[in-house]
Design a protein that fits this description.
The protein is α+β, with helices and mostly antiparallel strands and about 190 residues long. About 60% of the residues lie in helices and about 15% in strands. The two termini are about 35 Å apart. The model has no long low-confidence stretch (mean pLDDT about 85).
């Protein structure tokens, strides 16, 4: 945390900041909250930032922010002839947050030979957690409203930045692209996919 305080006191638009697993050693809720607050401050600073994290929700919260690009390290989970899952690191980045459908952690636990009873319990927990999360999301108009507001705020920030940059000849094309992205993302939110 001392390092984060130092960074926040000294960061500017000329800075490059690399953060690995901010919030480690705290509760999941506190760690995520600290990571979001730090990321928001760094976005405002306009510094160039690499932020490595296991908080999938951080990637989702920041997904529509101007200047934020979500990447994840690609891996391939497969099941060998022996029935044991194998995790292969591909050593390349892919766009978007890591899919939580892959169960990377559980597959890694299987490959390392953890007891089957523990693996089954973990799989049951993941399944129940996904079902709960999906039910909450379907039942929550508040989440849709929050996503709409987030998208509108992102559009507002992008328009402000376009005005500041002032590239007159590129502006019509950029505005058309922004409009297309906004309409597409808003439609996805309305359909429940976004």
């Amino acid at each position: 945390m001392r390092d984060m305080a130092f960074i926040l006191r000294n960061v500017d638009e000329q800075s490059m900041v690399i953060i690995d697993e901010l919030g480690r050693g705290t509760s999941t809720r506190d760690g995520l909250a600290i990571a979001i607050a730090m990321a928001e401050a760094l976005i405002q600073s306009k510094a160039f930032v690499w932020f490595a994290t296991h908080f999938l929700d951080l990637a989702r919260v920041l997904a529509n922010r101007p200047g934020v690009l979500n990447l994840h390290l690609a891996s391939n989970c497969s099941v060998g002839e022996d029935g044991v899952p194998h995790v292969t690191m591909l050593y390349k980045t892919e766009r978007g947050p890591e899919s939580d459908e892959q169960n990377y952690g559980i597959n890694l636990a299987k490959a390392m030979g953890l007891p089957q009873t523990m693996i089954r319990k973990a799989e049951e927990f993941v399944r129940a957690s996904r079902l709960r999360k999906e039910a909450n999301r379907r039942n929550s108009g508040a989440e849709k409203l929050q996503r709409r507001r987030q998208l509108i705020l992102s559009l507002h920030e992008a328009l402000k930045q376009a005005r500041i940059d002032g590239a007159e000849d590129a502006l019509p094309g950029y505005l058309k692209q922004l409009q297309h992205e906004f309409v597409t993302q808003m439609a996805a939110i309305e359909e429940g996919d976004g």
